[in-house]
Design a protein that fits this description.
Layout (H helix, E strand, L loop, with lengths): L13 H13 L18 H11 L14 H9 E2 L5 E5 L7 H13 L3 E5 L8 H13 L5 E6 L7 E6 H4 L9 E5 L5 E3 L2 E3 L9
Parallel strand pairs: 1-8, 2-3
Antiparallel strand pairs: 3-6, 4-5, 4-6, 7-8
Helix pairs in contact: 1-2, 4-5
C-alpha cells in the first residue's frame, strides 16, 4: 500500500464511496473499490455501473474482478451443501422491502431450494430473521439441516451445524454470519453437510 491513498467509508455510505471513486477516476487516477466476497454479489460493482450510466461517463475503463462469495466459502467449510440448486437471499431490509424479502423466502422454500441467507441479523434488525425462520418452517421439515458460519476464513471463524427447528434460538447470529438451510434431501454425515445431486451411486 506504499504511495497509495486509502479512503474508508462506513455502512450506508456506499453511494458516497462510489461517487468519490468515480470523481478520482475522472481526474485520471487509477482507483480500486474493494468489496468483501465478490464485487458483483451484494457488492459495489452494480452501484458503480449504475452511477456511470447515469452520468454518461462511458470513457472510463472499468474492470470487475471476481472474488469468492460467502455462499461458496461457507459451503466449503460445511462440506457440500450447495451441490444442487440453491437460492441466495439477503435479509437486510435497508434497501429491499421486507414484504419482498418474505415473498422470496416463501417461494424459494416452497420450491425446495437450498437457501443461503446473507446479512441475517444485526443488533437492531431482528424482525427479518424471525420472519424468515417462521416462513421456512411452513415449508421445510423442522429436522432440515442448517449450517451456520461466522467470519469464514477470518479470525474468530466459527462453524456450526443445527436444525431448522433450532435456528431461531441460535445465539451469535450477526452481519458476518452466513446461514445455509438444506433442502429435503440434505443430510449430515461425519460433520459434513451434504446435498446430493442425484447420481446413481450403485452403478
Amino acid at each position: 500500500m506504499d504511495n497509495k491513498e486509502v479512503k474508508s467509508f462506513g455502512m450506508m455510505e456506499e453511494v458516497k464511496r462510489a461517487k468519490r471513486a468515480i470523481e478520482d477516476a475522472k481526474k485520471g487516477r487509477r482507483v480500486c473499490i474493494v468489496s468483501s466476497g465478490d464485487s458483483g454479489v451484494y457488492g459495489m460493482a452494480g452501484l458503480v455501473l449504475e452511477l456511470l450510466k447515469k452520468s454518461g461517463l462511458n470513457e472510463l475503463r472499468v474492470e470487475i474482478i471476481p472474488g469468492i462469495i460467502a455462499a461458496t466459502s461457507c459451503a466449503a467449510l460445511l462440506g457440500a451443501p450447495l451441490t444442487h440448486d440453491f437460492a441466495a437471499i439477503s435479509l437486510s431490509d435497508l434497501l429491499t422491502d421486507l414484504n419482498l424479502i418474505k415473498r422470496r423466502i416463501e417461494l424459494a422454500a416452497a420450491a425446495d431450494f437450498v437457501i443461503v441467507l446473507y446479512n441475517p441479523k444485526s443488533a437492531k434488525r431482528v424482525t427479518p430473521f424471525k420472519e424468515a425462520c417462521r416462513i421456512l418452517l411452513k415449508h421445510k421439515s423442522p429436522s432440515t439441516p442448517v449450517g451456520i458460519v461466522e467470519n469464514a476464513y477470518r479470525d474468530k471463524q466459527r462453524v456450526s451445524l443445527t436444525t431448522l427447528s433450532k435456528l431461531s434460538s441460535f445465539e451469535k447470529i450477526n452481519m458476518v454470519t452466513t446461514i445455509i438451510i438444506g433442502n429435503s434431501k440434505t443430510y449430515i454425515k461425519d460433520k459434513f453437510m451434504i446435498t446430493p445431486r442425484g447420481y446413481n451411486l450403485c452403478s
